[in-house]
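Quick note —
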Amino acid sequence: MAEPIPSITLPPVANPDQEKTWLQKSLHQWLNEEFIPEDVNQEIAERAALIFMRQRMEGENDLGSLVIAIITEMRSFDFSQSFYGEFAIANAVSDLLLESLGFDKCCGQ
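Predicted structure written out below.
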């Protein structure tokens, strides 16, 4: 039987504005590079970064819980003008965070 993947806990927020700005810019860049640049990508990145930072400021540091929060709250976003959906956005945020922390996204190390 396979061992469960351990949870990933982010370090406490040291500079909320810097963290939010980094995530918003990084996600916007990822969205534009993954398919094609679209105006709605900026709105998506802003919304996801706001959700992420609000959760972080409320004390949530577990990456899995943050991903679920983004999925849940992005469901109300109108993705009709985008190639993306809430799951793609949450997974992209997770990948960006893992990469920034030096994790290998493939194998969780």
